[in-house]
Every structure is written in structure tokens, then in C-alpha cells.
Amino acid sequence: MVGNDIVDLHEAQLASNWERPRFLNKLFTESEQRYIQDAKNPFQMVWRLWSMKEASYKLYTQLCPRRFYDPKGFECTFQNNSGTVKFKGFQSYVKTKETSNYIISEARLHIQKWSSKVVKFKTIDQQDQSEELKTRLLNYVGSAYQLQKSELDIPTLNNGKEQFHISLTHHGCYGAFAIG
Asked: What is the pTM of this model?
């Protein structure tokens, strides 16, 4: 199982106002807010923590299929590019990659090798991006596989014999897929 999330930093700069009153209080615990306050680049720290939470949420919903909104319930800790996210009795191991263009996090139940493949889109249309990401994933795994989604839109790959958990993400000009 795997969860991933990508944040296009240019898009986040344009579309969000993370410094507005109460924004941080709604999404981040006190210890996470200290990470943000102490960071050399608070903007990047906000989106790093957010991507860690989102990746872990996607992993959690593969185990417990239900939709809910509780960003403060997912608490991040990290050192360098690795960390953990805890939610109630659940814990995920998260790796994060930061570039000047995007931040991507990948969550797993156990420490494993990175598998997310990043895609730079040619279009800004979200529907086109979603289709391009699915096409790139299917080209990567081969024509024997089909992409399926559950009632809650949780994606899997299936070839009739085996099923793989996957995670898809896109934001701004970037997307990524990971295979569990």
C-alpha cells in the first residue's frame, strides 16, 4: 500500500494565503506550527507538512475505506527527508523530496524504496491532467493492467490475477503516481 501527494510550489504561492489568521491553527498541531515558525522557509514547510499529511491520509483510506476531514489528527514528525505521520493507532513512514518546483511525499506502512514517478503536465486543465496521469501509469505498467477505482475513488491496478494499490496525485503543473 502507498499514498503520495504533490504540491506545485508556484501554484501554492498563487492560490493560497497560508499566512492568513487561523489558517495554521485549522490544519497543523502545535508541534507542527513550531516546525513552520522555526523553518528557514516557512512557506515550504507548510506545504511539506501538508503533503506528508495528504500522502498518509491516502494510505490510511486504503486500510479503512472512508472519507473524512481531520488534518490536525494526522501529526507529522521528521528528520531530514524521512518522517512519520500518526493518526490514532495508525502510523506511516513518509519520505519527502523537495525541488524548487514541487514538494512530493510518499507514505508507506513500512520503510521502503521510493516509487513515485513525477509527471510535468503540458496542460492546466485538471481533467486532461488526470487522464494524462492515468495514461502514463498504464504505459509504465503495461497493457495487461487496468485501472480501477472503488466507490470512494480509491485506485488500484488489476490484471485479472493480481491487484496492486496505487496512489495518484496532481497539483498545478505536476502529478505523480506510486505503486504499492
From this structure: 0.95
Are 166 and 178 in contact by the 8 Å Cβ rule? The answer is yes
| pLDDT in the model for residue 71 | 97
Q: Give 94-146 pLDDT, tens digit per residue.
A: 999 999 999 999 999 999 999 999 999 988 899 999 999 999 999 999 989 99
Residue 21 confidence (pLDDT):
84
Closest CA to 86 of 51, 113, 53, 50: 53
Angstrom CA distances, 65 to 29, 133, 151, stand at 24, 23, 9
Q: Is the dihedral of CA 6, 99, 37, 12 positive or negative?
A: negative
Residue 124: exposed, middle, or buried by beta-carbon count in 10 A (0-12, 13-18, 19+)? exposed
Listed residue (174, 166, 113) closest to 137, CA to CA: 166
For helices 42-63 and 30-38, the axis angle rounded to 10 degrees is 150
Distance between CA atoms of 126 and 79, rounded to whole angstroms? 33
Q: Are the C-beta atoms of residues 158 and 146 closer than 8 Å to each other?
A: yes
Residue 124 has φ and ψ, to the nearest 5°, of -100, -5
Q: Running DSSP on this structure, what letter comes out for residue 99? A: -
